[in-house]
Amino acid sequence: MNTILSRLILKEWITSFLGSCLIFVFLVSIANIVSEVLRAVTTLQDVLLNHILTLPMWLGKIFPVSAMTATLFSLNKLQRRNELIAIFACGHSRFAFFGTLTYAAIFVSLLQLFTNSVVRPYAERQKKEWLRDGGIHFRKHDKTPTVKTSSGGNGRVWYRNDSYYCAFTAFDKARAELRDVTLFYYGPDYKLTEITWADRVTYQSGNTWLLTAGETLYSLQNKNFSTSKNFLFQKATLLERPSDFRDLDSEISELTLIKLYRYILKIKRLGINSAEYEAILYERIASALICLIFPFIATGAIFNPNRRQSSFGKSVVFVLVFTGIFWLAYSACMALASSHKLPPLAAVMAIPAGCILYLLLMFYRHRKIS
User: Which helix (H) or strand (E) holds 27?
Assistant: First the structure.
């Protein structure tokens, strides 16, 4: 009997969840597409492609809200047909009901984690390639990289200029400094002429950078043996400025969860402040935790299954107000974490922890109703 009732509950919940997702995706799609069409002179094909590549970002916000509304609407449907009170009359306890709801919450949580850790980074990479190759209008709103680099998670970051290649491990924005740098200089005939290694390359002014603790190999294009020179400090002229590396951070969003974690470990070893990147990592994990919590927020009807004694309108208002307050507070905490004003883990997990506390208080209040 319990298996049949659990299937009934899951069926209603999943149906409501899919319906909520479709409605929210439809609303977001209409709003984005109409705003882009009205704002710019571009083809409908470009607008649709840009929206598709941006949609995974919106799904990260749609899934938690859909999970909460799925609980709200599925319980209301069961309540209107008197099925909810019948379920409990058959001996299906509230504890068993929450256990069934937990399976649904775990499913949405894993879906959210997969979307933020795999699908969204893939969409970000595809969007960047599209902006480089086409998407002329959208390039005005999404700045193309000044320095075109490889992914930060695949080892060292590489870029090419007119007379040299540069490879480095990380860029410290606070100090305007490149770490673990190798410069490969080549001549007009594209033959390698000089290689310079340096622990740090710090911006001075104009196009002047200061190389610290390194070595240079000269005359590599000649048939004779090259000469080397060790240095503690040495000035070099690079065509880039710190602002040219601003788009390096945009590549962080293209990293999967594992690669992002490895990248954070790497820059920590170099002594670079990784708080901003840790906030991104914890946010991906916290968003999955939120999907695990939200389905239980709107479960008040479980403790009051009689449809005459509960108000669906009040529940809807509560869900809307709660969602608005949650995302405002969560966004504020993320901003504080990114600006190094709060520890990343504490800032990102504070609001989900508050939601867990609310659920514990709700369960404690109704502890006598089994």
Answer: helix 2-39
Q: Look up residue 208 and give its two tokens.
A: 């002047």
CA 78 to the chain's CA centroid:
35
Tell me which residue of 369, 370, 128 sits closest to 250, measured CA to CA: 128
Written as six digits, the tokens of 189 are 């005939």
Domain boundaries of the chain, sorted by first residue = 2-138+269-365, 162-239
Does residue 361 have a pLDDT over 60? yes
Task: In the chain, count H helices and then E strands.
Answer: 9, 7
The pLDDT tens digits for 239-274 are 888 877 765 665 677 888 888 888 888 878 777 777
Residue bearing tokens 């509960």: 310
* Residue 369 or 8, more confident: 8
Buried b (16+ CB within 10 A) or exposed e, 129-143: ebbeeebebbeeeee
- Give 293-316 as a DSSP string: HGGGTT-GGGG---GGG--HHHHH
Instruction: Report residue 129 CA to chain centroid gap.
Output: 19
Cα 132 from Cα 125, distance rounded (Å) = 11
Structure tokens at 232: 């503690």
Q: Is 26 exposed, middle or buried (0-12, 13-18, 19+ CB in 10 A)?
A: exposed
Cβ contact 181:200 at 8 Å: yes
CA distance 203 to 145: 19
The mean of the pLDDT values for the chain is 83
Question: What letter represents residue 13's amino acid?
Answer: W
Per-residue pLDDT of 108-140, as tens digits, reads 999 999 999 899 988 888 887 777 666 555 554
Higher pLDDT, 302 or 353: 353
Q: Token match 């984690």: residue? A: 113
